[in-house]
Design goal:
The structure is a single chain. This protein has about 350 residues and is an alpha/beta fold. It folds into three domains: about 5-45, no CATH class; about 55-175 and about 310-330, 3-Layer(aba) Sandwich (Rossmann fold); about 175-305 and about 335-344, Rossmann fold. It is about 45% helix and about 15% strand. It contains 13 helices and twelve strands. It has helices at about 5-10, 15-25, 30-40, 50-55, 80-95, 105-110, 120-130, 145-150, 175-190, 205-220, 235-245, 260-275, 305-320, and strands spanning about 60-65, 95-100, 135, 155-160, 170-175, 195-200, 230, 255-260, 285-290, 300-305, 330-335, 335-340. A six-stranded parallel beta sheet has the order 2-1-3-4-5-11, with helices on both faces. Strands 7-6-8-9-10-12 form a six-stranded mixed beta sheet, sandwiched between helices. Helix 12 (about 260-275) links the parallel strand 8 (about 255-260) and strand 9 (about 285-290). Helix 1 (about 5-10) crosses helix 2, helix 1 packs across helix 3 (about 30-40) and helix 5 (about 80-95) runs parallel beside helix 13 (about 305-320). It is elongated. Keywords: DNA-binding, Transcription, Transcription regulation. It holds the Pfam family Peripla_BP_3. One of its GO terms (molecular function) is transcription cis-regulatory region binding. This is LacI family transcriptional regulator. InterPro entries: HTH_LacI, LacI/GalR-like_sensor, Lambda_DNA-bd_dom_sf, Peripla_BP_I.
């Protein structure tokens, strides 16, 4: 295997520059970084990870804090799969690897006394492993742990959770604007009785989507009866149950905005079981634009999130902090209305 000095000579740069490419990539110009990375790939050069960790007190690892207990459905959600691909790819492009940290369901973690219920021990564990930073993905019950991480001084980027700390920021979609687009689309199609199936009320995107829905309805001069707001959990069965309750109302809605595509698919199933024609008798709009949205019958109108882009934005934010670039402002990625047959 070639040495770092040989890589530097072949690239016409200093040894220090090659070292920064692998240890502090954002401090090297894009042109030089691409040359060094290309030569390293051609020669199959790999930095000595142990030596690098000792020298920099960082392991080249970014921790992912996410409760993946098999009893919770969150890890199976298509939205998160694409997000993780974007996150991992962006970190790998800068020489970092993603380490998924065990959570309270793990016997290994219990053995060292750390869990999401014991966030101080968890923070200490991340320091022992010299992690460069953390990406936090909410599972619905991690608020106290996320607060501890954000206040620890470690570079932290949360996805869909607004955290506050000396080196903490967050990345999310424009959920308010996306929900408003859904309402305006349905109003433009002639609907006035519009209901919504929300996500869990403790979830930031769910709250924002409900706020966007209410604001847009008010802006259109339309009332939202209390019974037109039904809480779900982002998954298909809750959307199906919510739609059944809406159909049973004395004056049911003619259109429904669901805060996730999974719930919208459940709503379509309930409508079909009730004998309603979509979109002639009931229009349905979702949120996420997962792969299934284009495959159901009828294909689902939805608000597309840049799922991989959220992962890339999270990676860029955490690496900026890792390399001393300050704490980035929260990032709100735009959403896009994708009109299909469920609302025409």
């Amino acid at each position: 295997m070639p040495t770092i000095r040989e890589i530097a000579q072949l690239c016409g740069v200093s040894v220090a520059t090659v070292s920064r490419v692998f240890n502090q990539p954002l401090t090297v110009s894009k042109e030089k970084r691409e040359v060094v990375e290309r030569v390293a790939r051609e020669l199959d050069y790999r930095p000595n990870e142990s030596a690098r960790a000792l020298a920099t007190k960082r392991s080249g690892l970014i921790g992912l804090v996410w409760d993946t207990d098999h009893r919770r459905p969150g890890w199976r959600h298509p939205y998160l799969q694409e997000l993780l691909i974007g996150l991992k790819s962006a970190l790998s492009a800068h020489g970092y690897h993603l380490l998924m940290l065990a959570t309270s369901g793990s016997a290994a973690l219990r053995a060292v006394g750390a869990s999401l219920a014991d966030p101080v021990a968890y923070v200490n564990m991340t320091r022992r492993h010299h992690l460069g930073g953390l990406v936090l993905i909410d599972s619905g019950s991690d608020a106290s742990a996320f607060t501890a991480f954000a206040q620890s001084g470690l570079p932290c980027v949360a996805v869909d959770v607004d955290v506050d700390g000396p080196r903490a920021t967050y990345v999310t979609s424009d959920n308010v604007g996306g929900a408003a687009m859904a309402v305006r689309h349905l109003v433009g199609a002639g609907h006035r009785r519009i209901a919504t199936v929300t996500g869990p009320r403790a979830n930031r995107p769910a709250v924002d989507r409900l706020d966007g829905f209410r604001a847009a309805m008010a802006g259109e001069g339309l009332a939202v009866p209390p019974e037109y707001v039904v809480e779900g959990d982002f998954y298909r069965p809750s959307g199906q149950a919510a739609m059944r309750s809406l159909i049973a109302l004395p004056e049911p809605p003619t259109a429904v905005f669901c805060a996730s595509d999974e719930m919208a698919v459940g709503a379509l199933l309930a409508a079909r079981h009730a004998g309603l024609r979509v979109p002639e008798e009931l229009a349905v709009v979702g949120f996420d634009d997962i792969e299934l949205a284009a495959l159901v019958d009828p294909p689902l109108t939805t608000l597309a999130q840049d799922k991989a882009g959220i992962g890339v934005a999270a990676a860029r934010a955490v690496l900026t902090m890792v390399h001393g670039g300050g704490t980035p402002a929260p990032a709100f990625l735009p959403t896009r209305l994708v009109v299909r047959s469920s609302s025409r």
